[in-house]
Records
---
Amino acid sequence: MNPSGGLQWHWRAWRSQALWRPTCEQISTSLAQLAPASSELLLIGASAGWMMPSRWLQGFAKVTTWDIDPLAAPLFRWRHAAALKASGSELVCRTGDALAGFGQLLGKHPDACIFFDNVLGQYRFHFKNPEQAAQKIDRVVRSLRGREWGALHEVCSGPVTRRCPGASWPAMRRRVQGSPDSAAFAQDWLTQLGAKGAWLDHLTSTVFEKDTVVSHIAWPFKPDYCHWLQIGWVRH
Ligand SMILES: C[S@@+](CC[C@H](N)C(=O)[O-])C[C@H]1O[C@@H](n2cnc3c(N)ncnc32)[C@H](O)[C@@H]1O
């Protein structure tokens, strides 16, 4: 059983397309603001790329996707291969654990930038013990020193007081990580999301270093349950 992907994820993503549209548009806007220096992309946790705009992928000469889910590669090709062919970009889809032997994988793609596509925040579901998950995330991030990379992941998630308000869903907010007013921002943002009760920490608070510019995005995962996403890019 894959706790962060597989059939259940594909089914939810397929039938939630309307609900998730504003979030996907904000992800697309945020990605469009990045200017990767590398022409090669390693996309980790690609799944079928349900929330990934083909337009951003078209900017790369080569895209290699990785996912442990055997359905991910054929579905990713189904959703994105035509667009990548149109832009003359090479697409290679791999099935397997990209984070076991991650250093070797990086070594095989010395010039590629890396994008963790909604996978690091899911890592706590792959371990019995959250501490082990946090250590794994930390090891992965430390191995990226000197590389160009980015990530989309959850900060936290939880129940909301009202059903997803659709068009009035909060606008994306861009901020510098670790700004002095971070606590006030978090409080205000959670209020905007309509957070109630206890929210789950997705163990990603140290993925981006202080001073990284990060976009914050609301994701109504279910009508009554929201994920707080962040997306950022790191150049060394
Ligand atoms: C929330 S889904 C990602 C969604 C995807 N980016 C999209 O737009 O559809 C998380 C994905 O990460 C994959 N995954 C989890 N651990 C992984 C690992 N170690 N290596 C590669 N993929 C992994 C899961 O199989 C799952 O498809």
---
Amino acid sequence: MNALTLTNTAWSTNEHAFPGKGTMDEKLRFLLNYAILAPSLQNTQPWKFAVRGDEIRVLADTLRWMPVTDPDQRELYISVGCALTNLLVAATHFGFRYEVHYFPQDDDKLWVATVKFIDQNHTMTLADRELFYAIPQRHTNRQVYLNKAVSERDLQEIRNAVDDPNVSLFLSDSIEVKRRVDQLQVQADFTQFADPHYRDELAYWMNQGALNPSWLISRVGQMAVTYLNMGSSTTQKDAELLASAPLVGVLSTAENGHFHQVKAGEVFEHIALAGTGLRMGIQPMSQLLQVPALKAEVGALTSTPELEPQFIFRIGYAEPAAGYTPRHQLESVLA
Ligand SMILES: Cc1cc2nc3c(=O)[nH]c(=O)nc-3n(C[C@H](O)[C@H](O)[C@H](O)COP(=O)(O)O)c2cc1C
């Protein structure tokens, strides 16, 4: 990864700069300004794009893989899925109709998808617009969330964002589930930070300057808070958990291949965009699924323990996240 290419400019992409009278190549490249605003594991941005005629090829970039943290590349492919959602939401906004072909070459696991653009005759809905405008507003929110239960209507909107038969969403506001998640998180943090290879990998990526320091602060803060509270008032702890995470969500799939991981990423980003439009914060809590011994425990918390847990996050109303993370310049992710 080349830290020199990091910039904040993609966050201020102006939709009016869309080259409506330009070539197909110029239009498709413009859409990629939105794709790269997607979340990714430690902001590694493990994606590449190739614009070819009326197609965009979406590729996984294993040079930006974190082998210690993510040995099976689950989160790398989830990240690529997030970028794919942004790309499709932006395409819809600019009127494109498209077809997506996943893993078009059986023997090429890096070639994740080809998006073939058919025409620009799509009639936009209000929901399409809201998702699009959420792209530059969405940031991982690591703050304490507001102590306000999520309304039925908003809950339904979050559920509606899961529009994919390959992925199921478990959402819980149960104190027991949250308390268990909290315990597992601490176990995961201790396991990971005890591993020198993990620390080295983390240090490398933090040095690249792509990761907002709030990530580390929230991890270490989590451990400290839980430890300080141990043995003291559990009521206080419950209140804290409720206040800071009204809902815990787990995305699961029937299988665990890269296709299903991409799908989980697509759905996660849909939820994140829908939640952003509803003034919600969202934060992945990946460490729970990065420690193999804890993965089954996460699955067991859900109503579908037979499925493969792919992603876990908290979501709730929140003040907007402060600041944003940089992105690699578009040119550096074009293949
Ligand atoms: C697969 C994946 C795993 C992530 N894991 C965590 C996590 O465990 N904790 C966290 O605070 N953020 C996590 N994030 C959020 C990223 O750190 C964040 O997307 C990235 O730093 C870019 O910042 P942004 O989301 O604000 O644009 C994850 C994101 C993805 C896509």
---
Amino acid sequence: MKVIFHTDFYREYTSDPAAVPGRMEAIVSALQGKVDFITPEPATLDQLRAAHSIDHIESVKLERVYDIAALAAGGSIQAGRIGLAEPAFALIRPPGHHASHSSCWGFCYFNNMAVALTALKNEGLIQTAFVLDFDLHNGDGTINILGHTGWVQILNPVNRTRAGYIKEIEERLCGLKADIIGISAGFDHHEDDWGGLLATQDYETIGRMVRDTALACNGGCFAILEGGYNHGVLGQNVLALLRGLEPGL
Ligand SMILES: [Zn+2]
């Protein structure tokens, strides 16, 4: 599997939990030797403007995180493009699902998923998309930007039991029609992370369901890293998802 990653993502660009040292390293070491790492280019200003207001982009510049946030968004676009042909993963930070059109919070600056899907749409590569956001937290920014466009469906599962959570995803994917499925992959709902609900094997199950659904609708799929803060389990959780998306990995 192709994993989009840049060594700039090792940088501690802020003091929040998404930016701490060791987080990217934990994932890279779990994936090393199993995937092909690909170096991304930053998103262009036009690609960012397709999802965000100029004022918001300027405010990100003032926070001195523009370069790293644009690189994360660019890596997400690349994962989406590859995802049309084969499953791909954007191992990026800062995360994006709390970034709205004109504001952001929760360790996010640019909405990586919204920038990626909008770029694919504007390039004529897709007509419709589905976003599965299994992060512990609701992807309010993604809903803000994409929720009312008419061409994107979004699921933030809310079931509070482990089995119910998986079932909720399964039911929504059943019969789904979309040109691409984008996963906002936050791992903070893991039993050893903040949310305390999902087991590592559940990420493989979810990945397999997404892969099967994408194949059934002759579409693509890709995933973008969102949250996940326990470095002791984060790498294995990412690997489990990728194994679901690509059996035999
Ligand atoms: Zn989260």
---
Amino acid sequence: MSLADVLRRRRMTRRFAGAVSVDWIVEQCDVARRAPSAGYAQGTHFLILGGERLARFWETSGAGEWFAQRQPGVLDASAVVLVLADRTAYEARYSQADKAGHGLEQASGWSVPYWLTDAAMAAQNLLLLVEEARLGALYFGLFVEPRRTLASLGVPDHVDCVGAVAIGERHADDRPSGSGARLARRPLVEVTHLGSWGRGSNS
Ligand SMILES: Cc1cc2nc3c(=O)[nH]c(=O)nc-3n(C[C@H](O)[C@H](O)[C@H](O)COP(=O)(O)O)c2cc1C
């Protein structure tokens, strides 16, 4: 599959059949972390949960109950990878001689928090690698007291979670679902702007 084919094929899986090993997922994280990284600060981390730890995560995060009521097939995923962003790696890197002096030594000085940007790029890499392997993944947010969930896993306060990636075999009966299946893709002309805002690529 070409990269463009992988991108076109990729969609969220919400019905898994299980059976992807944690070792394989660790290997994919190694590739996924070859994402761009501001200042090469490399503050992206992957916390991989399988087995008993995964069962506890579903419970603590509230995500288990949420999916059980809406898309129970998500709970058959083999593992969940929390994609984490350590802002202190960026503060430290942008305090070094070649980067200092731009007001980025403290996280509050950043108009775009690049640690989140970098982690999101790595997360997309992971989604694409899973798709390339013809497996399934679902990216979802931790929205019920995320800090409590992270603390239960020993994640320090200065580390944020940009999202969780559930991974498993895509169930043969999995069908496009969620908002992506209900809403039409916006026309290209609406989201591409040539030269200035409002001038679409084919206007
Ligand atoms: C930041 C973010 C948060 C998301 N949160 C959820 C979620 O909590 N539950 C869910 O089922 N899908 C979630 N999604 C998946 C989107 O609904 C999905 O990407 C979108 O509808 C497009 O569908 P597709 O990815 O299958 O093409 C999330 C996606 C992103 C990027």
